[in-house]
Amino acid sequence: MIASVPPTEEDRLDELRELLRTAGVATVGEMVQRREHPHPNSYLGPGKLEELKAAIAADDANLVAADDELSPRQERNLEAALGVPVIDRTAIILDIFAAHAHTAEGKLQVELAQLEYNLARMRGLWSHLERLGGGIGTRGPGEAQIETDRRLARDRIAALRRRLAHVRSTRSVMRAERERAHLPQIALAGYTNAGKSTLLNALTGASVPVRDRLFHTLDPTTRVLRAGGRDYLLTDTVGFIRKLPHQLVDAFGATLEETRLADLILHVVDGSAPEDDLCAMIRAVDDVLHEIGAEEAPRLLVATKADVIEPERRLELSHRHPDATLVSAHTGEGIPALIERVAEEFSRTLSEVELLLPYDEGARLAELHELAGDLEREDTPEGVRVTVRLPAAVAARFAPFALSRGSA
Ligand SMILES: Nc1nc2c(ncn2[C@@H]2O[C@H](COP(=O)(O)OP(=O)(O)OP(=O)(O)O)[C@@H](O)[C@H]2O)c(=O)[nH]1
Ligand SMILES: [Mg+2]
């Protein structure tokens, strides 16, 4: 049984249904209440609560899922009033993440997010009990236990943060990062289930697992994309969703860094979704990109699943989203055009730079050859003087070696 109190948006309970399906829960009924704000004590208003109780009995439901993050108080009161367990959207998403995390880093990140979610609930419970206890100076029942639990949770959070820092600083990660530092970086970003991993596979011949379920990919995969005679690194990472739990955004900082630091973001949308859904998903992704500080990065909109789009909808898409590149990762339609657009996007920013590389920076020279192919070089007593055309994003990384024009 699912319940929602949407303040402005149209009903989008199909998404909660999808989340539950991914988590292995079948839905038997749903209920929406329209009100300005969810009820502070019980999420739903008293009348709706009675209705829900009757529906639970009629449909023989054993769980209620709310489409928002519930306050601990709302959750407790709902459970008391309904007599069945109540979970919220955040807990469901956290559960799915926990089930889909494979790497050590992914698992640690999810556990961190779960603990932070639980810690907030303990705090709520604690202040509630404190009030019951009669105010200042009185110790409420169970408070000592909760304090201990909170301390344990905090200790565990600190330990997780340390372990994460350690995992990330392992040699292999550092090497991968160094190797990657000199190639332009492109990140696939988009709503969960939009088709990002399938697109990565189509663009680079990778074999990232793909499935019709939400948050299938959590751990980033990076592959080389060859476009217009140059190499780029293309990364597929975790998908976004409306009301993405902030605990996940915090815990997945390093993973989301892949997106934040990209020189170009391919914003992948499911072109086969109805226009209203499509716009809502684009907005949700824009919001998360903003939240992680990636709003400035250049972006290309890519509408995928062209093979299942009706001709009229194609026309509508081209009117409503004239900048979008339409592709199908299944048939390959539009893929060459997309690769061309990516190359173009970088070549727009090509400019000639003059660099002076000291002789002990030989590796840099090799990098430049890979990046730019042709370059002019001249040996001087201070080092190799190089004239080369680089995309702006890459030129910035060579700034320490830049020579201002005219200097010797
Ligand atoms: N018809 C069609 N289906 C596609 C296309 N691309 C992806 N799909 C399907 O869409 C579903 C999701 O694809 P994924 O590539 O896993 O999507 P994702 O964005 O990586 O999803 P998460 O990792 O779960 O966030 C799968 O069932 C794919 O087979 C396409 O071009 N055409
Ligand atoms: Mg994926």
CATH class descriptor of the largest domain:
Alpha Beta
CATH homologous superfamily name of the largest domain?
P-loop containing nucleotide triphosphate hydrolases
**Separation of termini?**
75 Å
Cross-sheet strand order for the largest sheet: 6-7-5-8-9-10
Order of SSEs, N→C?
A: EHEHEHEHHHHEHEEHHEHEHEHEHEEH
Q: Strand content of the residues, in percent?
A: 15-25%
Count of runs of 4 or more consecutive helical residues: 15
Question: What does the model show?
Answer:
With 408 residues, the protein is of the alpha/beta class. It has 4 domains: 2-95, Rossmann fold (3-Layer(aba) Sandwich), CATH 3.40.50.11060; 101-168; 182-347, P-loop containing nucleotide triphosphate hydrolases (Rossmann fold), CATH 3.40.50.300; 350-401, Alpha-Beta Plaits (2-Layer Sandwich). Helices cover 47% and strands 17% of the residues. The chain has 15 helices and 13 strands. The strands form 3 sheets. The chain has a 6-stranded mixed beta sheet with strand order 6-7-5-8-9-10, sandwiched between helices. The protein has a 4-stranded parallel beta sheet with strand order 2-1-3-4, with helices on both faces. A 3-stranded antiparallel beta sheet has the order 11-13-12. The longest helix has 29 residues, at 104-132. The protein starts with a strand and ends in a 13-residue tail after the last helix. Bound molecules: guanosine-5'-triphosphate and magnesium ion. Guanosine-5'-triphosphate is lined by residues 190, 192-198, 210-212, 214-217, 239, 304-305, 307-308, 328-330. Residues 190, 192-198, 210-212, 214-217, 239, 304-305, 307-308, 328-330 line the site of guanosine-5'-triphosphate.
